[in-house]
Amino acid sequence: MSIITNQPANMKADSNNKLIKVAVFDDNIARREGLKLLLDAMENMECVGTYSDCRNVVEQIKKTQPNVALMDINMPHVDGIEGVKLLKAAFPDLKIIMQTIFEDENKILGAISAGADGYILKQKTPLKLIQGIQEVLEGGAPITPIIAGKILKLFNKKKGYSPTQSKVNLTTREREILNFLVAGYSYKMIAAECFISYSTVNTHISKIYRKLQVKSVSAAVAKALREGLT
Predict the structure, then answer these.
(1) Is-above-0.70 flag for pTM?
(2) Number of domains in the chain
(3) pLDDT by residue (tens digit) across 130-154?
(4) Does 25 share its domain with 119?
(5) Residues whose CB falls within 8 Å of the CB of residue 125, separated by 6 or more in sequence, listed in order
(6) Domain end residue (candidates: 129, 152, 175)
(7) pLDDT tens for residues 97-119?
(8) Same domain, 125 and 177
(9) How would you list the strands of the sheet with 68-72, edge to edge?
Protein backbone atom coordinates (compact mmCIF):
# COMPACT_ATOMS: atom_id res chain seq x y z
CA MET A 1 0.00 0.00 0.00
CA SER A 2 1.48 3.36 -1.01
CA ILE A 3 1.05 6.12 1.54
CA ILE A 4 0.55 9.69 0.36
CA THR A 5 0.33 12.26 3.10
CA ASN A 6 1.55 15.75 3.81
CA GLN A 7 1.18 15.22 7.54
CA PRO A 8 4.39 15.00 9.60
CA ALA A 9 4.38 11.55 11.19
CA ASN A 10 5.20 12.86 14.65
CA MET A 11 2.31 15.33 14.82
CA LYS A 12 -0.90 14.22 16.51
CA ALA A 13 -4.22 15.82 17.37
CA ASP A 14 -4.25 18.49 20.05
CA SER A 15 -7.01 19.22 22.54
CA ASN A 16 -9.05 21.00 19.85
CA ASN A 17 -8.84 18.13 17.36
CA LYS A 18 -9.88 14.82 18.87
CA LEU A 19 -7.66 11.84 18.12
CA ILE A 20 -9.40 9.10 16.14
CA LYS A 21 -8.37 5.64 17.33
CA VAL A 22 -8.60 2.82 14.79
CA ALA A 23 -8.26 -0.97 15.13
CA VAL A 24 -7.38 -3.07 12.08
CA PHE A 25 -8.52 -6.67 11.46
CA ASP A 26 -6.93 -8.33 8.41
CA ASP A 27 -5.22 -11.70 7.91
CA ASN A 28 -2.71 -10.18 5.46
CA ILE A 29 0.27 -9.04 7.53
CA ALA A 30 1.58 -6.69 4.83
CA ARG A 31 -1.76 -4.91 4.61
CA ARG A 32 -2.06 -4.69 8.41
CA GLU A 33 1.36 -3.07 8.61
CA GLY A 34 0.56 -0.75 5.70
CA LEU A 35 -2.68 0.40 7.30
CA LYS A 36 -0.93 1.00 10.60
CA LEU A 37 1.70 3.17 8.89
CA LEU A 38 -1.01 5.09 7.04
CA LEU A 39 -3.13 5.73 10.13
CA ASP A 40 -0.20 6.66 12.35
CA ALA A 41 1.01 9.12 9.70
CA MET A 42 -2.24 11.09 9.92
CA GLU A 43 -2.32 14.06 12.25
CA ASN A 44 -5.59 13.12 13.94
CA MET A 45 -5.51 9.32 13.74
CA GLU A 46 -3.77 6.46 15.52
CA CYS A 47 -3.77 2.70 14.97
CA VAL A 48 -4.35 1.20 18.41
CA GLY A 49 -4.18 -2.46 17.41
CA THR A 50 -3.78 -4.87 14.47
CA TYR A 51 -5.23 -8.40 14.47
CA SER A 52 -5.27 -11.35 12.05
CA ASP A 53 -8.80 -12.57 12.90
CA CYS A 54 -11.70 -12.07 15.31
CA ARG A 55 -11.14 -14.90 17.79
CA ASN A 56 -10.72 -12.50 20.74
CA VAL A 57 -12.38 -9.49 19.16
CA VAL A 58 -14.46 -8.38 22.16
CA GLU A 59 -11.51 -8.50 24.56
CA GLN A 60 -9.26 -6.73 22.03
CA ILE A 61 -11.70 -3.87 21.48
CA LYS A 62 -12.38 -3.55 25.20
CA LYS A 63 -8.64 -3.17 25.78
CA THR A 64 -7.84 -0.71 22.98
CA GLN A 65 -11.17 1.23 22.89
CA PRO A 66 -11.03 2.43 19.26
CA ASN A 67 -13.55 4.76 17.63
CA VAL A 68 -13.48 2.79 14.38
CA ALA A 69 -12.66 -0.80 13.40
CA LEU A 70 -11.48 -1.62 9.87
CA MET A 71 -12.67 -5.18 9.27
CA ASP A 72 -11.70 -7.63 6.55
CA ILE A 73 -14.45 -10.10 5.64
CA ASN A 74 -12.47 -13.24 4.79
CA MET A 75 -10.27 -14.20 7.75
CA PRO A 76 -9.49 -17.63 9.25
CA HIS A 77 -11.02 -18.99 12.47
CA VAL A 78 -13.57 -16.19 13.06
CA ASP A 79 -14.32 -14.03 10.01
CA GLY A 80 -15.30 -10.39 9.69
CA ILE A 81 -19.06 -10.88 9.50
CA GLU A 82 -19.11 -12.85 12.73
CA GLY A 83 -16.75 -10.25 14.19
CA VAL A 84 -19.23 -7.49 13.38
CA LYS A 85 -22.04 -9.39 15.11
CA LEU A 86 -19.93 -9.87 18.24
CA LEU A 87 -18.78 -6.26 18.32
CA LYS A 88 -22.18 -4.70 17.72
CA ALA A 89 -23.64 -6.81 20.52
CA ALA A 90 -20.91 -5.70 22.94
CA PHE A 91 -20.18 -2.18 21.65
CA PRO A 92 -23.20 -0.85 19.71
CA ASP A 93 -21.65 2.61 19.27
CA LEU A 94 -18.42 1.33 17.69
CA LYS A 95 -18.18 2.24 14.00
CA ILE A 96 -17.16 -0.63 11.73
CA ILE A 97 -16.03 -0.30 8.12
CA MET A 98 -15.76 -3.50 6.12
CA GLN A 99 -12.91 -3.90 3.63
CA THR A 100 -12.49 -6.58 1.01
CA ILE A 101 -11.15 -7.23 -2.48
CA PHE A 102 -14.35 -9.13 -3.28
CA GLU A 103 -17.70 -7.84 -4.50
CA ASP A 104 -19.74 -10.89 -3.45
CA GLU A 105 -23.30 -9.64 -3.00
CA ASN A 106 -24.27 -12.10 -0.29
CA LYS A 107 -21.22 -11.27 1.82
CA ILE A 108 -21.86 -7.57 1.34
CA LEU A 109 -25.44 -8.00 2.48
CA GLY A 110 -24.35 -10.25 5.35
CA ALA A 111 -21.90 -7.63 6.62
CA ILE A 112 -24.39 -4.78 6.42
CA SER A 113 -27.17 -6.86 7.98
CA ALA A 114 -24.77 -7.73 10.83
CA GLY A 115 -24.46 -4.00 11.55
CA ALA A 116 -21.46 -2.77 9.54
CA ASP A 117 -21.47 1.01 9.16
CA GLY A 118 -19.67 1.16 5.82
CA TYR A 119 -18.18 -0.99 3.06
CA ILE A 120 -15.11 -0.02 1.02
CA LEU A 121 -13.18 -2.06 -1.53
CA LYS A 122 -9.48 -2.52 -0.72
CA GLN A 123 -8.57 -1.33 -4.20
CA LYS A 124 -9.58 2.21 -3.29
CA THR A 125 -6.84 4.75 -2.58
CA PRO A 126 -5.63 5.47 0.98
CA LEU A 127 -7.32 8.88 0.72
CA LYS A 128 -10.70 7.23 0.16
CA LEU A 129 -10.19 5.09 3.24
CA ILE A 130 -9.27 8.10 5.40
CA GLN A 131 -12.31 9.95 4.08
CA GLY A 132 -14.46 6.90 4.87
CA ILE A 133 -13.26 6.86 8.48
CA GLN A 134 -14.07 10.54 8.85
CA GLU A 135 -17.47 10.12 7.20
CA VAL A 136 -18.55 7.23 9.41
CA LEU A 137 -17.73 9.27 12.52
CA GLU A 138 -19.85 12.11 11.16
CA GLY A 139 -22.84 9.79 10.88
CA GLY A 140 -22.40 8.77 7.26
CA ALA A 141 -22.29 5.28 5.79
CA PRO A 142 -19.31 5.18 3.42
CA ILE A 143 -20.16 2.68 0.70
CA THR A 144 -18.31 2.42 -2.59
CA PRO A 145 -20.84 3.24 -5.36
CA ILE A 146 -20.34 -0.13 -7.05
CA ILE A 147 -21.14 -1.82 -3.73
CA ALA A 148 -24.33 0.23 -3.26
CA GLY A 149 -25.39 -0.77 -6.76
CA LYS A 150 -24.78 -4.44 -6.06
CA ILE A 151 -26.86 -4.29 -2.89
CA LEU A 152 -29.79 -2.84 -4.82
CA LYS A 153 -29.40 -5.45 -7.57
CA LEU A 154 -29.26 -8.24 -4.98
CA PHE A 155 -32.68 -7.33 -3.63
CA ASN A 156 -34.16 -6.84 -7.09
CA LYS A 157 -32.91 -10.10 -8.61
CA LYS A 158 -33.94 -12.43 -5.80
CA LYS A 159 -36.35 -14.97 -7.20
CA GLY A 160 -39.87 -13.99 -6.35
CA TYR A 161 -38.66 -10.94 -4.43
CA SER A 162 -40.92 -7.98 -3.97
CA PRO A 163 -40.56 -5.34 -1.27
CA THR A 164 -42.85 -5.74 1.69
CA GLN A 165 -45.67 -3.26 1.95
CA SER A 166 -44.17 -0.86 4.42
CA LYS A 167 -46.43 1.06 6.77
CA VAL A 168 -43.69 3.61 7.44
CA ASN A 169 -45.00 7.10 6.72
CA LEU A 170 -41.96 9.13 5.69
CA THR A 171 -42.23 12.71 4.51
CA THR A 172 -40.82 13.67 1.10
CA ARG A 173 -37.77 15.23 2.74
CA GLU A 174 -37.21 12.21 5.00
CA ARG A 175 -37.40 9.87 2.02
CA GLU A 176 -34.93 12.08 0.14
CA ILE A 177 -32.49 11.98 3.05
CA LEU A 178 -32.94 8.22 3.42
CA ASN A 179 -31.99 7.81 -0.24
CA PHE A 180 -28.82 9.79 0.41
CA LEU A 181 -28.00 7.51 3.36
CA VAL A 182 -28.44 4.45 1.14
CA ALA A 183 -26.03 6.05 -1.35
CA GLY A 184 -23.44 6.43 1.42
CA TYR A 185 -23.62 10.20 1.94
CA SER A 186 -22.40 11.68 5.23
CA TYR A 187 -24.51 14.16 7.21
CA LYS A 188 -22.38 17.04 5.88
CA MET A 189 -22.81 15.88 2.29
CA ILE A 190 -26.58 15.58 2.74
CA ALA A 191 -26.72 19.07 4.23
CA ALA A 192 -24.89 20.45 1.19
CA GLU A 193 -27.08 18.58 -1.31
CA CYS A 194 -30.33 19.59 0.39
CA PHE A 195 -29.23 23.17 1.23
CA ILE A 196 -30.03 22.70 4.91
CA SER A 197 -27.94 22.82 8.08
CA TYR A 198 -26.13 19.89 9.66
CA SER A 199 -28.40 20.10 12.71
CA THR A 200 -31.50 19.96 10.48
CA VAL A 201 -30.15 16.81 8.81
CA ASN A 202 -29.58 15.32 12.25
CA THR A 203 -33.18 16.15 13.23
CA HIS A 204 -34.58 14.51 10.09
CA ILE A 205 -32.45 11.39 10.57
CA SER A 206 -33.55 11.10 14.20
CA LYS A 207 -37.16 11.10 12.96
CA ILE A 208 -36.30 8.51 10.29
CA TYR A 209 -34.74 6.26 12.94
CA ARG A 210 -37.84 6.57 15.11
CA LYS A 211 -40.22 5.78 12.25
CA LEU A 212 -38.13 2.84 11.03
CA GLN A 213 -37.52 1.67 14.61
CA VAL A 214 -33.75 1.48 14.11
CA LYS A 215 -30.74 2.95 15.87
CA SER A 216 -28.03 3.21 13.20
CA VAL A 217 -27.39 4.23 9.61
CA SER A 218 -26.64 0.66 8.56
CA ALA A 219 -29.88 -0.60 10.08
CA ALA A 220 -31.82 2.19 8.35
CA VAL A 221 -30.19 1.36 5.02
CA ALA A 222 -30.89 -2.36 5.41
CA LYS A 223 -34.53 -1.74 6.28
CA ALA A 224 -34.94 0.78 3.46
CA LEU A 225 -33.69 -1.77 0.95
CA ARG A 226 -35.64 -4.66 2.48
CA GLU A 227 -38.93 -2.76 2.48
CA GLY A 228 -38.47 -0.94 -0.81
CA LEU A 229 -38.37 2.54 0.72
CA THR A 230 -35.78 3.89 -1.73
Answers:
(1) no
(2) 2
(3) 988 988 887 777 776 666 666 666 6
(4) yes
(5) 4
(6) 152
(7) 988 776 666 777 777 778 888 88
(8) no
(9) 45-51, 20-25, 68-72, 95-100, 118-121
